[in-house]
Structure formats: C-alpha cells, structure tokens
Amino acid sequence: MSGRDGPDGEHRLVGLLQRTALGELDAFEAVYRELAGPVFGLVRRVMLDRAQAEEVTQEVFTELWRLSARFDPERGGVRAWVLTLAHRRAVDRVRSEQSATARMEVAGRMAPESSPPDDVAEQVEHRLEREKVRRCLRRLTDMQRETVRLTYYTGYTQREAAELLGVPLTTVKGRLRDGLIRLRDCLGVMV
C-alpha cells in the first residue's frame, strides 16, 4: 500500500479538502491531481461516451469545490466520498440521457399516427424543427442545458433539480431563465 492510499494519504487528502473549503486553489489542484484519474475511470465505466464522461468529471470537481466544506471525515474517506459523488453524477447523466432518448422514441412513434403518412412536407418540417431545437440546446452552457433538461425533459420541478444538482433554487431559476432566453433567441421565437 502506497502512502497515497494508506492512512497518511487519507489524512493528507482530508487536510487538502479542508483547505479547499477555505478557498485555497493550490489545495484543490492537489486534490484534483490525485483524484482526477480515479474519478474519470469510474465515470468512464458508467458512461459510453468519452466526451460526456469528461463533462461529468468536470462537473464532479466543480461540485467538489462547492461542497468541500460539507465533507465529514467521521463518515468516511475523501476518496470514497468523491467517488460516490462521481458515481451518482454519472448515473444521473445516464438516466437523463435514457429518459430523453425514450421520450424521443415515443414522440417518433406518435408522429406518424398524428399526421397522414403522405404528408411528407409536414414530417420534414417537424424533423427540421427538432434538429433546430437540438442545435440550439447545444449552444447552451453545460449547466444551462442540464437545468433545462432536468426541468423540461425529465419533469423534475425546479426545487428537485436544485437538489439533484446540489445548488440553491435561485441558481437553478437563474440558469433556467438564462437558458430559455438563449433558446428563444436562437430559435427566433417572438414573444
């Protein structure tokens, strides 16, 4: 067992996390250097897409920066706590993607029944609109997109989304407002 994995390594991580909670960037960087590999490895095993795994890893460390003061060494080790955050975030992302895919499949199955099969122009128009919405969603920041996805596509309330994201309700409302404004502007919707 190396010094990093033993009691001394854990004690060092606890100290670094406590300093991170005080806003010390060098301590956070040291935690990142030590745990980025294990976090990414865990997230990558949960998620198929490497780019999304990288995004989730970044979100985990953003969350770690915000929540470092909440860490309680009496309840477990730093490494286990951070890997638990990573696993939860990765599973939430996979579930969110699965829900979005399922909704799209349902919408795709419903579309032909709701319109005559020979109305090709209308079907093409709907497909173009869906692609435009997807393109505009990709222009949002990761946090705005995740907030919009949780509240509009998965059906969570703003309060539930705030709890899932580990941020204050006002932050979710702000991200949602800003994201919807950007979507409106991108889509060219007149209000």
Q: Total strand count, please?
A: 0
Shape: elongated
Largest sheet: none
User: Which regions are unreliable across 5 or more consecutive residues at pLDDT < 50?
Assistant: none
Question: Radius of gyration from the CA trace?
Answer: 21 Å
The number of helices is: 8
End-to-end Cα distance, whole Å, is 63 Å
**What is the beta-strand fraction?**
under 5%
Average pLDDT metric: 83
Helical amount: over 70%
Structural class: mainly alpha
| Helix/strand order, N-terminal first | HHHHHHHH
Question: Can you walk me through this structure?
Answer:
By secondary structure, the chain is mainly alpha-helical. It is built from eight helices and no strands. It has helices spanning 7-21, 25-46, 50-67, 78-114, 120-138, 142-153, 158-165, 169-187. Helix 2 packs across helix 4 and helix 6 (142-153) packs across helix 8. It is elongated, with a radius of gyration of 21 Å. 20% of the residues are buried. The model has no long low-confidence stretch (mean pLDDT 83).
